[in-house]
Write a structure and sequence with these properties.
The structure is a single chain. By secondary structure, the protein is an alpha/beta fold. The protein contains 25 helices and 9 strands. It has 3 domains: about 325 residues, P-loop containing nucleotide triphosphate hydrolases (Rossmann fold), CATH 3.40.50; about 100 residues, no CATH class; about 160 residues, no CATH class. Strands 1, 2, 3, 4, 5, 6, 7, 8 and 9 form a 9-stranded mixed sheet that branches. α8 links the parallel β6 and β7. The chain binds guanosine-5'-triphosphate and magnesium ion. The site of guanosine-5'-triphosphate has 21 residues, from α5.
Length: about 650
């Protein structure tokens, strides 16, 4: 049974080694002394290993897809370390990295990072990934102990400290099109004894912020509490962003992949990949992987929460790699199980292709340095509010912050609904009726909507602040109320301005109609026929808004006077006088304007009286003894006010 496979194996292995030596002296071929040795023969004289090699040859075919940009990839450098409870960037490493980024032909960089508990094979996986991206034809030809791209080792002690990157931009064929290169990033293991929660969260946060794909490494089985921890770290990040007035991280195309190591339940046949499962979309998730994702991520609150930070969530399982975790392992790739190698190769292809297509999540080459520095400053500032706090206290702060945010949004949503907020001022929005503000003139309505919305926001806050005690909730509710009260004057002013714009528009329309009618008298009846319904509509709209009718009319009148002033004087006088000739004799231009005004408002003296009483805050019947000319006098005062305004502005001019 062994004869034929052994022969095939040896020849393929030789071919692999020939390829290796063709790489030159930069990477000494430690595999050479193994050829023909007993260990080599023993390791490969199994049908399984032969299949592995057969599969590797298939990889060779698909591996040529990887574009090798360098014969030897430099070793990873430590980009960020944790010193005295602060993230510190290593300037020399950053310079090396930035030089490598700029030397590449890529415009964007997709970071693939790995994070998770310590001593679980994170660096080993990334080391293999780097080797594969460097040259998928001969990635296993060397002794894996030598020339480690990412340093890994057996034993109990932590190996990786801080954040490490390979100062090299990897490219795959799709990078040629998208110009998105790949950067591999390794992180210190989380939850190591003695590490503060801040340290764990901030390292995870940094990886989450920078990565297009975050590989979250887990041993044997995904657990709900692991997902919760990750979500808490991402929440912390979001809270920090809010505290600093920055937009929270966007999930744009970002991917989170739970990488489950030493998965013992895989179907051995599946790992042979006899049928080419990979599609143009990459290796699909197996049923088992989908089921893990569904049970621990999609159906848990924490898992669903992660959807805020990552657009796609995946799960990938890797079988046990064999006895490589033993202290005496010499790094022979032949000791690694074929299932592990096969799955890794497929996964590397899939991850690399997906990352190079994730242009939205990638960071511009020119922005990388600045982005990294900003994130580090941001994360260092989180210490203030996590220092000395238990996880539950931080969770309570988080839930309160979230509740406050949601309460604010509910306030805004209610105000929009009540028509007391403007959504936008762009003309298309106004035309489409998307601008709320139909009630802008109604000060009482605005105040009432505000009162209701503040109450609803308070209820929302109390409903969502689940993890805080009553005292903290009461304090936050009063802070929220105070904050929203401060909003009111600004909203009132905004509404006033919006309303003014509408009135100005109406005034311009009126004056245009009057002018045209004056210049072309035969057109006057037609124009009047069109204008009157338009006015009626406007007044009706003010009216159904429950508005202050008189105040509207006076405001409209003022708006007209202001508009008039901006028009050429000769046009105005000639047009007006022609049209309202009967008033010309009085030479009282104001009277003309009052005429326009009274015509517009088209309501009776008794109505005018009532409105004025309300406007001036008088008792009903307070203006009973005033005749219509006296009432007009009051209206005229308003006009004079505007005239004065005009004079002042002219003087100032
Ligand atoms: N059981 C098992 N061991 C592995 C796997 N991958 C690598 N190892 C071994 O696990 C040991 C630790 O590997 P590392 O890559 O240094 O682990 P790490 O998670 O980066 O460790 P820290 O950097 O210390 O957090 C090494 O002896 C590897 O050979 C795996 O999939 N399963
Ligand atoms: Mg490591």
């Amino acid at each position: 049974m062994a004869a034929l496979p052994l022969c095939t194996t040896t020849s393929r292995r030789d071919a692999a080694l020939r390829q290796t030596s063709a790489l030159g002296d930069s990477r000494p071929s430690h595999g050479r002394h193994v050829v023909g040795s007993r260990s080599f023969v023993n390791a490969f004289a199994t049908a399984g290993a032969c299949r592995a090699i057969r599969r590797s040859s298939k990889h060779t075919a698909r591996g040529t897809r990887a574009v090798s940009r360098a014969l030897s990839v430099p070793q990873a450098v430590r980009l960020v370390s944790v010193k005295e409870g602060q993230l510190v960037i290593d300037d020399a490493s950053l310079l090396r990295l930035v030089t490598a980024l700029q030397a590449s032909s890529c415009t964007h960089i997709a970071v693939i990072s790995i994070a998770g508990a310590l001593r679980q094979g994170k660096s080993f996986f990334l080391d293999l990934f780097a080797r594969y991206l460097e040259s998928s034809d001969s990635w296993l030809a060397d002794s894996l102990q030598d020339h480690q791209r990412f340093h890994w080792s057996s034993g109990m002690e932590r190996v990786t400290d801080g954040v490490w990157v390979c100062p090299h931009v990897f490219q795959v064929p799709s990078s040629e099109k998208t110009r998105v290169g790949i950067l591999l990033m390794d992180t210190q293991g989380t939850y190591e004894p003695g590490a503060t929660r801040w340290q764990n969260d901030s390292l995870l946060g940094l990886a989450g912020l920078l990565s297009s794909t975050l590989l979250f490494n887990i041993s044997k089985q995904l657990q709900e509490d692991t997902v919760e921890d990750l979500q808490a770290a991402m929440d912390m990040l979001q809270m920090t962003c809010r505290q600093h007035g920055r937009p929270p991280p966007r999930p744009d195309s970002k991917n989170l992949t739970f990488l489950v190591r030493d998965w013992a339940h895989a179907d051995p046949q599946e790992l042979l990949f006899e049928d080419d499962l990979a599609t143009s979309q990459g290796l699909p998730m197996s049923d088992q992987e989908q089921s893990v994702l569904a049970s621990f991520v999609h159906s848990t609150t924490a898992g669903q929460g992660l959807g805020q930070f990552f657009e796609s969530l995946h799960c990938r399982t890797l079988p046990h790699p064999g006895h490589i975790d033993r202290p005496g392992w010499t790094g022979l790739s032949s000791d690694i199980s074929s299932g592990f190698i096969n799955k890794c190769g497929r996964l590397f292809d899939t991850l690399a292709d997906a990352a190079s297509a994730q242009a939205c999540a990638a960071i511009g080459v020119q922005d990388f340095e600045q982005t990294l520095k900003e994130f580090v400053i941001l994360l260092n500032s989180t210490q203030d509010f996590t220092e000395g706090k238990s996880r539950s206290a931080v969770l309570s702060d988080l839930s309160m912050l979230n509740a406050m945010d949601r309460a604010r949004s509910s306030y805004r949503a209610n105000m929009y609904r009540a028509g007391a907020l403007m959504k936008g001022k762009a003309i298309p929005q106004i035309l489409l009726g998307e601008v709320a503000g139909t009630r802008a003139l109604v000060a009482q309505d605005l105040a009432a909507a505000h009162r209701d919305s503040v109450a609803v926001a308070g209820d929302e806050l109390r409903r969502l602040a689940l993890f805080s005690d009553e005292c903290a909730v009461a304090q936050s509710a009063s802070e929220l109320e105070e904050e929203l009260e401060k909003e009111l004057p600004r909203l009132q002013e905004e509404n006033r301005q919006w309303n003014q714009q509408r009135l100005n528009g109406l005034a311009e329309l009126t004056l245009a109609a009057v002018t045209v009618s004056g210049l072309v008298p035969p057109a006057a009846p037609g124009i009047a026929a069109v204008m009157m319904p338009a006015y009626a509509l406007q007044l009706w709209r003010f009216k159904i808004a429950g508005g202050d009718f008189m105040a509207n009319s006076i405001e409209l009148h003022k708006a007209m006077l202001r508009t008039e002033r901006t028009w050429a004087k000769d046009v105005r006088t000639s047009a007006f006088r022609k049209l309202y000739g009967c008033f010309v004799d009085s030479s009282d231009e104001m009277l003309l304007e009052v005429f326009v005004f009274t015509e517009l408002r088209s309501f009776t003296s008794s109505r005018l009286r009532k409105e004025l009483e309300e406007l001036l805050g008088l008792q009903p019947g307070g203006l009973q003894s005033y005749g219509s000319s006296q009432l007009m006098g009051i209206v005229l005062e308003a006009s004079e006010e505007v005239q004065d305004e005009g004079r002042h502005s002219a003087d100032e001019g």
